[in-house]
## 1
Amino acid sequence: MGEDMKDMVKAHCYCCDKDVLILILCRKMMNTKIQGLNIMHDGIVAFCSECHGKVYSKEVDDKNIEEAQKEYDYEVDRWNRLKEGNDTNEGNKI
Ligand SMILES: [Zn+2]
């Protein structure tokens, strides 16, 4: 439990032309555009366990969108606070 590779899911690999187990091999910075904002966030990429080609997986895609959304919310929150006043109110957290 708790290992990164535990949740291996199946996805369709067009290269192998069948459903294969996917490997979550990479965690890298990704760039997703939300509401016209470029959001940098951690992302995962799924690879076919047999031919090692990149495969599309809805679960992986959902996770990346979730991460992007979290970063987006954080950025919007930060911007709103910057707009309200240029000084940082360190002791004044909501
Ligand atoms: Zn494959």
Note: The chain has one domain: 10-83.
## 2
Amino acid sequence: MLAGTAGLVPICELASGGMGRVELALRGEATFRRFYAVKRLHAPYREDPRVRAMFLEEARLAGLVSHPNVVSVLDVGEDSDGLFLLMEYLDGAPLSLLIRESARHGELIPLSVCVEIALQVSLGLHAAHELRSPEQGEICLVHRDVSPQNILLGFDGVVKLTDFGVAKALGGGVETTAGLLKGKYGYMSPEQLRFEPLDRRSDLFSLGVVLYEMLAGRRLYDGRKGPEVIVRRILDDAPPDIGDERDDVPPELCELLFRLLAKNREHRPASAADVARELQWMHSVLVLEEEAVSVEGVVNEWLSEYRDRRGREIEQGLDALRKHAASKRRRKRALIAAACATPLVGLGLGLLIFAGSSSGSGSGAGSSVGSAASVAAASNANATKVPAAPKAPTLSKAPAVAKPVVAATRVATPAPAADAGASSGSGASSGSGVGVELGAVRTIPADAGRATARATVSPSRKRRARRVRRRKRKSRRAASKMPLWRWK
Ligand SMILES: Nc1ncnc2c1ncn2[C@@H]1O[C@H](COP(=O)(O)OP(=O)(O)O)[C@@H](O)[C@H]1O
Ligand SMILES: [Mg+2]
């Protein structure tokens, strides 16, 4: 559950990896409805201080990057399920799936689509590399895990880079544990494998591997042969020629791939922006030559099964949510009905008592006090309980109702005769403020109003009030004789 993630309701799981999972969550408020992706750690890692630090570092760095080709991290927090990262949801699929599907169908991804995906990734990557913060200035961020799993293809054709989980800001943040490699071996640059200090060009090597795999429709440095074989091949083998895999690749693209996959970073392009420029130029030429094939078209055609399955999962999740909300509403209605039923019983009883008192003889005083007490008790929520009032001889017929009466003040002095008359005269009026006479103790509800106050006004106070009124009348008269200009 996303308790604490303010209004977010989990819908379904999007992915689950070694360290954590990503789930789809919905936030809905009236007509507002938006999906988010929420990333969490698996239970065994939740309390690990090193993993927590990495997670928070991912949130910090990714949260700073703002670019259409980078998945936005909107928030980070912690609830009963541990730390979570709130991200924009990308309705799409990872590039790894497209490459797999292309291999499964024995088809190659159209050239222009490969170039366009690589172009969008390089733009996002450049934004990450160029990241600056108001406090630190230049951050020199290196993603360190550019791979097909971390490149998301939207069904609308937008490509986004994600997962800054092992990203590193040079000279700051969480340090890499000596001897521990983070990221996927098959996409690591030679310098990364040699534990050398990294710069942005390390990510360009990984981008080269990704571009090669898209074009070839297969892994370049295959992980199935074990990490030692991969490491040896990345360090020692000459960069492969994509022209051997497909013959529609223009020489400029072959040459760019050679440079991206160079063992020596000095031979690679200087920045992702340079790569983007070259790819942009190639793309514009390819679009003129090739039949217009877009990322959107290919993703929707090749991954339609995945898209539909995801759609069904989301619909099922929403359905479960709707059912849950409906049963909650039903339970609430039942509770309200039960709560309403009780006062109705009370009101019915009250009416019965009232009918009995008006028709019966000799029970007038007792019943009226009784009904007043119940009305006062019902209407005066703030009233305090007084100890059981001593039974007066006149109340002997209604002792049970008169006992648990509410009152704010206890007046120990004997009540004046007029008050006694008022209190015993009408039950309803005593409920709306007039004191309720209970034998020797006179109780007044907390909201006792002016009627009670007036009944207990002393003669000297009356005289003072009369004097004040007279003074006011006099000043009003004087004001009316004043010339008009005085009022301007
Ligand atoms: N914002 C998102 N929108 C949609 N799917 C996402 C999003 N973030 C991650 N995913 C899915 O979850 C997978 C794993 O996410 P990632 O951040 O790479 O986690 P990990 O650290 O486990 O690799 C991605 O490959 C993608 O399929
Ligand atoms: Mg990942």
Note: The CA atoms of residues 30 and 218 lie 47 Å apart.
## 3
Amino acid sequence: MEFTENTFCTDSLIDLNRFCNFLERYDVIILQKEIKATNGSTLVQAERPLTEKIIKSLIARNDIENGHYIIDNTDNLKNAIINKIFKELNRNLELATFSFPAVMIQKKSLDIRRIIRSALTNTFFYGYITLLFYINKPITIHLIEVTLICIGLLNSFNDEEINNNDFQKLFQAGFLHDYCNNDLNDWYEHENFETPDNHDRESALAISNKSLSADISDIILMNNKLSINEKYNSAAKQKWYENTSELLATILNLTEYYIYLKNNNISNVPEKIEDYLQNALFQLSLLTEKNYFPNNLLRIFETHYKNYSEIFNYGKIIGTTESMCIYKNLAFAYPKPKATQLLCINSSFSCEYRIPSQPLKVVQDTKYKNQIYPILQPGWYYKCKFSNNLPKPLENL
Ligand SMILES: [Fe+2]
């Protein structure tokens, strides 16, 4: 199945049948041209709804003239597609009724069907998302997870100015954020372990001429990067974003990072999924404390994961201790998450807090390397006097 010039088309009746199965509808498939037998007789007239019986009987014949089947882009077809996508997303939300995105989305009841409908008014996105679900590419689950968590975070975020248009943009950005990696079986490797600035920039560029709102490219461009923004948690109570697009971009960025951490083993070898989650929450708290993420987004995680308040606090204290560095960002708590030392990552500056004796050898900080995760390269590091300020490591982390 392809989507060209605003219509779905295929050269194969089997594919056409599969598409009907996917939509769980036959009657919405209306072909622009008739289907003929090799002797020239018409088997199915143009512009007539198909039935399962007709398609199956055509597939069973071996005298069908080679055809190119172009499906009429009717409102009925569009509605069937919206219903199908809604059903798939809902299935993912219902899988665990108390899942993070489900709770966030149900908190202030959100009309997901309306978001889908408005996102699909863009023709490019309409074809793109239909084929994504129909082909069920390996990356599809990741895109669903990212999008639903993003939408949930936005729904839980307090800002009167957020409107349906913002939900629609975030929905599109979520599904398009890895656009140039969508067809790769090893998208996961590319996503997490390639050199910085690759696939997000490429994806943003590739969709920039698809008549989508220009904000979508900007939102995707900011994704997958970790950078400090002093405005995030400044004492003055001003808004940290200038427009909602900046908010949407930060939500997407944080979500990608959270999902990456949650699905990866960063420094120890957790045996349970819960351990990954705890580690992710620890890292998010630490980085938020250091102004990589805004506090009012972290608070949504804290509200949901109430049982982990100890972990959020521990992460914040580690963040505060690292921030004691007089150069702001040269102190690195090690090893993580159970930090026992504060190491100086660049000893070329003179510093009265450095302990020149007993440097520590770091063999390997993490099993996984990631472009956005701050890691220590193997080598010798001096300890920092502020190591004494580190709290006792949490036992169950
Ligand atoms: Fe991604």
Note: The longest helix spans residues 75-94.
